[in-house]
Specification:
The chain is built from 24 helices and 16 strands. Bound molecules: phosphoenolpyruvate and magnesium ion (MG). Phosphoenolpyruvate binds next to strand 10 and helix 18. Its EC number is 2.7.3.9.
Length: 571
């Protein structure tokens, strides 16, 4: 038995067999073969098995994530049936007497290099597709396991160095009971996705991939951030009980599902959810969300092999608005960059991607991409209560430019006779310290603020949100963070605007009383945090919390703040 400590990333307890997600060793030797027909058959068999697998994966992705996420696998399937690619491989075996591995590798590499060199985005994507598919076929030829989270068909806990957001998107909740990784933090996007999938997760264990072997029994305690490898009978019983207790707790929370969020002294605050795809809306409604406070639209781009078209985006936005009825839906425009990459957008490697060419910076430069999204949003606006916000705004100028493009596209659509709502609020994410500092100036021009603490904390504390070695600096209750947050809320209210928060801090049980006292209007969090937060707020007095504001803001450390809040709220 071994116990590892990591960062608690998603609530719940998972107990299952380990499934290690590792890149397989695909090295091979080029060999001469005598029986070329047998070798061609070996290649064809590997292609056929790969095809079968991809069809299953595509169907799983379609069922759990929707059509747009499944499309990438259609592109992969096309590669496997393309005679222009397969025939030269077969010819190579027949004419040069080489083994299937060598023929596959040489022909695929030639096409990949050729497509990559083309000044055409579509062809460069084909290169990425061929690369992906070749690995799968090669693994079959070499008879090594190709880890496929989407193909798992027994209950497992996934063990990985890290999970990309698109790996996470492929996980099938029915079988993947939890996951644990070496790296990552509570606000890395794999952790955020784990919470929307409601899968227990512990990230940042540093060594779990070294400590666990396939088939070990692993307990993932997503509440306390512990991973227990091959637990004793006694420990197993303890964690099974913890699972049962957690389910009971959820039943108690569920009683507030259809209640408004009212503090003890009857102040209403809005508890809304963060989502990544239209499929997440079900979880929002099941967890009593009063709206969507952050729709991260980049997942629509990430699950695709090409930019989603205006119509595809329109369908996704309309679907969310339709499902939410008249409840507010805040959609954030494309926030790509940082740990969110697009395989088909060839951007230069950067030294500091989190400080680089991302989000609104990229959208203002590539206004073709941006305008397509804005048009799709505007067309969808008549189907519900849409609000639009721009990510990573650092200057007033960026906001003005983004808003001007939005208004331009609105006028264009109206000119084309398309219906567009006239009541769309336009706001910004406050996640860059410069914007938090001059929130007063911004408040005169925006309709609302949504404070993105995941980034605001990393930029204020100069501590990478993904790096567990500096996670001790990632301090939501640091007086510097609280001062910025308070500044933003006061600035909004001085201009009669509302202020929300969509960073993970909004669902944190120590932060909630502080934010309630500061006067935050809207709390946007993982859907599963909504009912615990509503339960907590019911027992808090807004007036009492407000009376502690000055004292909290004058404290010197996050620890002092935490101890103070705990003492006042019995935590
Ligand atoms: C909500 C935020 O955005 P994201 O986590 O997508 O960067 C944030 O930065 O707080
Ligand atoms: Mg952010």
């Amino acid at each position: 038995m071994t116990i590892l400590n990591g960062i608690a990333a998603s609530n719940g307890v998972a107990i299952a067999k380990a499934y290690t997600l590792e890149a397989p060793n695909l090295s091979f030797e080029t060999k001469k073969v005598d029986d070329v027909d047998k070798e061609v058959k070996r290649l064809d068999d590997a292609l056929a098995v790969s095809k079968k697998e991809l069809e299953i994966i595509k169907e799983n992705a379609r069922r759990s994530l929707g059509d747009e996420h499944a499309e990438i696998f259609s592109a992969h399937l096309l590669v496997l049936s393309d005679p222009e690619l397969i025939t030269p491989m077969e010819d190579k075996i027949k004419n040069e007497n080489v083994n299937a591995e060598a023929a596959l590798d040489e022909v695929a590499t030639m096409f990949i290099n050729m497509f990559k060199a083309m000044d055409n985005e579509y062809m460069r994507e084909r290169a990425a597709d061929i690369q992906d598919v070749t690995k799968r076929v090669m693994a079959h030829l070499l008879q090594v396991t190709f880890p496929d989270p989407a193909l798992i068909d027994e209950e497992v806990v996934i063990i990985a160095e890290d999970l990309t957001p698109s790996d996470t998107a492929q996980l099938n909740k029915q079988f993947v009971k939890g996951f644990t990784t070496n790296i990552g933090g509570r606000t890395s996007h794999s952790a955020i996705m784990a919470r929307s999938l409601e899968i227990p997760a512990v990230v940042g264990t540093k060594t779990v991939t070294e400590d666990v072997k396939d088939g070990d029994i692993v307990v993932v305690d997503g509440m306390d951030g512990e991973v227990i490898i091959n637990p004793t009978e006694e420990q197993l019983a303890t964690y099974k009980q913890k699972q049962v207790d957690f389910e009971k707790q959820k039943e108690i929370w569920a009683k507030l599902k259809n209640e408004p969020t009212l503090s003890k002294d009857n102040t209403h605050v809005e508890l809304v959810a963060n989502i990544g795809t239209p499929n997440d809306v079900e979880g929002v409604l099941n967890n009593g969300g009063e709206g969507v406070g952050l729709y991260r639209t980049e997942f629509l781009y990430m699950g695709n092999s090409d930019f989603p078209t205006e119509d595809e985006q329109f369908e996704a936005y309309k679907s969310v608005l339709d499902q939410m009825g008249d409840k507010p839906v805040v959609v954030r425009t494309l926030d790509i960059g940082g740990d969110k990459e697009l395989s088909y957008l060839d951007l230069p490697k950067e030294m500091n991607p989190f400080l680089g060419f991302r989000a609104i910076r990229l959208c203002l430069e590539r206004d073709d991409i941006f305008r397509t999204q804005l048009r799709a949003l505007l067309r969808a606006s008549v189907y519900g209560n849409l609000k639009i916000m721009f990510p990573m705004i650092a200057t007033l100028d960026e906001f003005r430019q983004a808003k001007a493009l939005l208004l331009e596209e609105k006028a264009n659509l109206k000119g084309e006779g398309v219906d567009v709502s006239d009541d769309i609020e336009i706001g910004i994410m406050v996640e860059i310290p410069s914007t938090a500092v001059i929130a007063r100036q911004f408040a005169k021009e925006v309709d609302f603020f949504s404070i993105g603490t995941n980034d605001l904390i990393q930029y204020t504390m100069a501590a990478d949100r993904m790096n567990e070695q500096v996670s001790y600096l990632y301090q939501p209750y640091h007086p510097a963070i609280l001062t910025l947050v308070n500044n933003v809320i006061e600035a909004a209210h001085a201009e009669g605007k509302w202020a929300g928060m969509c960073g993970e801090m909004a669902g944190d049980s120590i932060a909630i009383p502080i934010l309630l006292g500061f006067g935050l209007d809207e709390f946007s969090m993982s859907a599963t945090s909504i009912l615990p937060a509503r339960t907590q707020i019911k027992d808090l007095s807004r007036e009492e919390m407000a009376s502690y504001k000055d004292e909290i803001l004058s404290m010197g450390t996050a620890d002092e703040v935490e101890a103070f809040v705990r003492s006042k709220t019995n935590q």
